[in-house]
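Protein record
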Amino acid sequence: MASADSLVAIFEAITQNLERDQSSLNHLDRGNGNSGDNMVHNFQLVTSTLRKVTAQGGQQDVGAALGQAAQVLRDDGKGATAPIYASGFQDAATQLQGKSSFSLSDLMPLLQALLGGMQKANNSKPGEGSMLDAIVPGVMGYLDAKNNGQSEMEAILSGLLGSRRGANSTAGASTGYGQSAGRDTTGQIDPGAAGAASMLEGMFGALLQSAMRSQAQGQAQQQAPAQPAQPAQQPSTASTVIDILGSLFGGR
């Protein structure tokens, strides 16, 4: 991942994961029943904007592309989480301003800025049954693992585990998405948290697939086969994440 196109690929993977989870996210939404629809709409907007901006040619600016995506999300996004994600993307845009490419070395500042922007725009705090209960442990699980010297794959798995556990934990909160309507949401997973976990799963799944591919290529080069090696068939991002989460939780 060393081009602006790689950022588009990450958001394409996020959108695909959200599309797969769309129905289940709608089912979790006991209010309007459209949480999944809104998340898919919003990330389709973001992905489409990034794709258009990075395809314009000339000097590409990853930060500028994210900034435009944040503005489009503010203007045309749907649901209560749209402005929260827009705030996160705007902070990420500022962090990556002037960069003409996106690589794994940019992931940590991207996630740090995304988390900071979303926390500023969210009136809830971690533990109150909101999307932050998935975003914070997911992002911090990855960042802490990297800061402790763990491998990319180990850090990704830490992020995946943290986000899904955090989303599931919202079922134990009496407040959350139903608070404004005076409903006790104990026993109900917050749809915003589930959507945030799905978003991170799409992102980390794409990165995990890239890390697995790089590892396989490195092993193939070390073995130096006499005949040209055929490229290994890689599982799809969605199936990779499903398999990982299935092993962690015994199925989703």
User: Anything to note?
Assistant: The mean pLDDT is 84. The chain has one domain: 4-177+184-218+234-249. Residues 4-177+184-218+234-249 form a domain with the Serine Threonine Protein Phosphatase 5, Tetratricopeptide repeat fold (CATH 1.25.40.340). The first helix runs from residue 4 to 28.
